[in-house]
Amino acid sequence: MIERLIEEVMEREGGYVNHPADRGGATRWGITEAVARAQGYRGAMQALPRETAAAIYRRLYWRDPGFAAVAERASALGAELFDTGVNMGPGVATGFLQRALNALNRGARDYPDLVMDGRIGPATLAALDGFLRSRGAGAETVLVKAMEALQGERYLALAEARPANEAFLYGWLANRLAPQPA
């Protein structure tokens, strides 16, 4: 699953980009220069190998944040976390999940509220299991929709807070707010 998701995100992000309004600076395959350097890449960003970018995606945006464990339970949700994590950071994506799970637990009757720590650990996985078990068929779809609602609100807030981000808003809404196929 992750190999397909990585291919899709690299296709969507494209090759080398250095948009003047993007605070992230130069990117290749969607990997920022800061992330590439932090992961040991020393070459020119225009030459960042596809395989290096894929390895970074696998480690930083799938395995390390625990999205693979989520995907084992709910594949569409794992795909959504990966895509949101790539675009906004894994901690933000996990925060959306935790916030949605807290709001959907019927006053902590289905499972306890989570501490909003932006990390997927045993408590978040237990809450996810409780949500999926208590809500049955369609639960995963509802959770993905809740996360996308939070993501869309954040995009609008980013554009409102910094007019230069308006250059990206249309693309964010068009390309990021769609459930990722499992």
From TrEMBL:
The species this protein was found in: Sphingomonas aracearum
Transmembrane segment boundaries: none
Recorded superkingdom: Bacteria
Name of this chain's protein: Uncharacterized protein
UniProt xrefs under Pfam families: Glyco_hydro_108 (PF05838), PG_binding_3 (PF09374)
Classification of source organism: Bacteria, Pseudomonadati, Pseudomonadota, Alphaproteobacteria, Sphingomonadales
Stretches assigned to the Peptidoglycan binding domain: 95-176
InterPro entries noted in UniProt: Lysozyme-like_dom_sf (IPR023346), Peptidoglycan-bd_3 (IPR018537), TtsA-like_GH18_dom (IPR008565)
Residue stretches making up the TtsA-like Glycoside hydrolase family domain: 7-89
